[in-house]
Structures are given as structure tokens and as C-alpha cells.
Amino acid sequence: MLTCPRTESIATQFSIITPSPLQKIEAAWTRFFIGESRKKVEVWCKRDDLLHGVIAGNKWRKLAKPLQEFQLNRASHVLSFGGPYSNHLHALGYCCNQLNIKFTAVIRGAYLKDQAFNRTLQDLNNWNANLVFVDKITYQQKTDENYLATLRKKMSADVIIPEGGSQQDALFGMQAMLDEINMATSSRPFDAILLPVGSGASMAGVIENCSSKLAKHIIGIGVLQGEGYLEGLVNQFLNKDTPHLPWHINHQFHFGGYAKSTVELKTFCKEVNQQQAKQDIPICIEPVYSGKCFFALKTLIQQGYFAPNSKILIIHTGGLQGAR
Q1: For 73-118, how does the pLDDT look when each residue is reduced to its tens digit (9 = 90+)?
Q2: Would the pTM of this model clear 0.70, i.e. be above it?
Q3: Residues contacting residue 242 through CB under 8 Å, at least 6 positions apart
Q4: Which class is domain 8-54+168-323?
Q5: How far apart are the first and last CA of the chain?
Q6: How deeply is 9 buried, as exposed, middle or buried, from its count of CB atoms within 10 A (0-12, 13-18, 19+)?
Q7: Could you tell me where in the chain the CATH 3.40.50.1100 domains are found?
Q8: Number of Cβ atoms within 10 Å of the Cβ of 241
């Protein structure tokens, strides 16, 4: 278990709404048949997408501790990496602008500098971010120590945050999320916790901090093609000397790769959003992260993967801005 630093002051500065709701999902797809007998699974959703209008979901969870340290260490220039629709860059760019810290975003796709900006890049530009577009080969050096040292010197950057905000500090925010869930539920543990997996730190944070009193199993839903690769991303953050709950990553629902989709997935997201629009607190999903995770949950339920009356938690990690 990590020792979590206090991040209340930075959360107050950004008007983060915690705890995020723990919401029960009532939908036809939570039911399935065994023979002619109709069974049901109890599904709950941790609504981290409601934490904030801009820095919602796991982006806040992963940035909470680094943002606190930016202020404590009086950082003047932060640099990070991502694609042109990056939720991480969008959230970090907003935060740096609010804290009056210079921000440089190294963006995959040299060709983009000559094209009209999408809404993510427009926002970053409006928040005075320094946008640096690089080709794919250069971008692949984003974890190379020599490249990072050269980039730090060239850009005069105080802090470099890895792509997706995936670093050891990100695990503290996930611990805070699990603390909220523990406080909100006192009944039997969840039979499984599901969440999308892209860069690994959010899943690692759940694995590292989840006790058997809260859940029995943790299932990641890979949003990109990367069997073995994603497991490696998760494992790099885990304490090898600490026992963890059983966990695995399901690789059957990436729909062709990162940000790839199909008509079936898009239709599912649209149907869920339309159905949820009638609820008091509607759930909105998109096809890059949350949509794939919800689709996986629906499919697994209807395949009978979970026993009848299982109690399942799905974590909504946000990411809606990239689908605008």
C-alpha cells in the first residue's frame, strides 16, 4: 500500500468534485440467460468522469500528486508527450495554464503543424501551450534517456511527464479513488473491477492498492493491440514484494487498435448514451476508452463469464473530450 500525500489543496484550487459518485447501472444488458432461466449481474460505475469539466477521470488521478509538486518545487516549465487527441495533454495543458506554468506538448505527427487544429489542439493553443510536432520515429524516442536529456536542455524544461501521465506518482491518485469506493460501500466485495488499459498506470494503481475486502479480481480491458506489451507497462509500476489480487488484461476488445473502432462499437456507444440520457445522472461513453470497456462488460455478462448475482464495478476513466 502506498503512503498517499495530501493533495486536498490542489484539488480545492481546481474545484475537483470528490468523492466522485458510485452509481448503480440499470440496463437490459446486465441480464443474461442460463437455459431458460434469466439471471442478473449487479453493476456499479465509479463516475470519475464527473470529477471536473476538463481534468476529469484518471487524468486528475494521475496528475494530482505531480501538480502538487509543481507548486512545491516552483516549476516554471513542464513538458509531456501525446497524440493530437490526447486527453492527458489536454488536461495537463489546462492545469499548467491555470497555474501559470509554461507547458510544451510534444505531439506525434509532424504533418499536423500544417493542418487545421482539431478541438484538442485548439484548446492547447488557446491555453498558450508550446506545440511541438514531431515525426513518428522521433516520437518513439519519448522514453530514451539521452533524447529526454537533450530535450530537457533544449527546451529548458524543469519537469518531463511521460506519455499518458504514466509514472509512479500516478498510483497515488488511484489509491485515493479506491479510498472513496471503500467509504461508499460496506457490503460484500466486488467480484471484479473493470477498467480500460492504455498506458498501464491506472491499472497498476488499482492492483497495487486494492484489498480483498474491496474486490476479488481486477480485469483490464486493453484498448490497443498489445498482448504482453500492456502487461509489461502495468508490471513496471508494481511492487514485486507485495502480494496483489488476481488480475489480467483482456485483449479481445481493442477493435483493431488504439482509437480504432467499428460500426458495432459506435452504435453501442450511441445506444448507451441515448438510454442514459433519461437517467438522473446520465453516463456518456466514447469509442476510444470507456466505450470499449463498457462493450467488454456487456459481452462478458451476456456470455455468462460472471456468475449470477455477481457484483461488478466498472471505472469510468473519462476521456470524453477526445471524441468531440
Answers
A1: 999 999 999 999 999 999 999 999 999 999 999 999 999 988 999 9
A2: yes
A3: 1, 208
A4: alpha beta
A5: 37
A6: exposed
A7: 8-54+168-323, 76-157
A8: 5
